[in-house]
Amino acid sequence: MSPRRDLVRIASFAVGVAVLAATSRSGVVLNFTMMALYGCLMAQSWNLLGGYGGQFSFGHALFFGTGAYAQAIAQVQGHLNPWLALPLAIAAAALVGLIVGALCFRYGLKGSYFALVTLAFAEVFRIVALSVPFTGAGVGLMVPLREGVANMQFGDRRGFVWIALGLVLLALLATSALRHSRFGAWLQAVRDNEDAARAVGVDPFRVKLGAIALSGALMGAAGALYVQVFQYLDPGLAYGPHTSVEALVAAIVGGLGTLWGPVLGALVLNLLAEGTRSLFGALPGINMVIYGAVLVAIVMFAPRGLLGLGQSVRALWTRGGLAQSPREVHGG
Question: Would you give the DSSP letter of residue 311?
């Protein structure tokens, strides 16, 4: 797919969401739109590293929590305007990505080892956040309520929809640019065969380091958005595994290594979450049960995700036909 076609589709997506945000008078619709965009941002972040780079992370909450705490601490203790704190939060998450990536990729960690190490880093950061005073320790941090555009606080969800849409568009444009760039080709080459990529002059360490920094930056932006919306943060919310699960499941369900897979996955999972909430009320943990069931079904029957559902169905049909043909021959 050409870059121009990507830009046309991204522009169409932006116009559609903008029209919905500008015309809707329903708080429920605006809140759903905001949360779907928030989920899309996290999924797109994970997709850059896991889908295009082939480095599956179980600890993306590490970057989310870093961005969230940077956003909150800059306001609460540094008295910095949230609009100025946002780029600092994104940069802090990218820096953590560089540090973790340097430690992991320098020693050749990949596959399940990389996944477990990222999970361990997220847990270490959670324990540190529980212990040091500037994070509020176990009590957490509360961002003061100062409603107004200048303070990135709004009376309804519409303002946050605009911010979330801007961040998602940034993520989509970054992903589209990566897909059609030389760096993107290097990243996918490393994903497919690291030794072969190295043999043709690609440096896997630098390529993967760039991918994890970009992925961390987008996840940090999601964390900063979370702080502005809910105005409270504690170590469990910042570095808990549920955030990592939400990011990776949405990307896998929608379709790994695609531009629109994370968007579709986030939309479907948010629809599932709202549906289960309506059907089962406050039954704790039901959304995670649904997530797990959907993920198992996708892996079993649509390994390419929802975007590749047609190809997966054709493959199953072909295998089924091939499996039946010997019986038909013997029966004849």
Answer: H
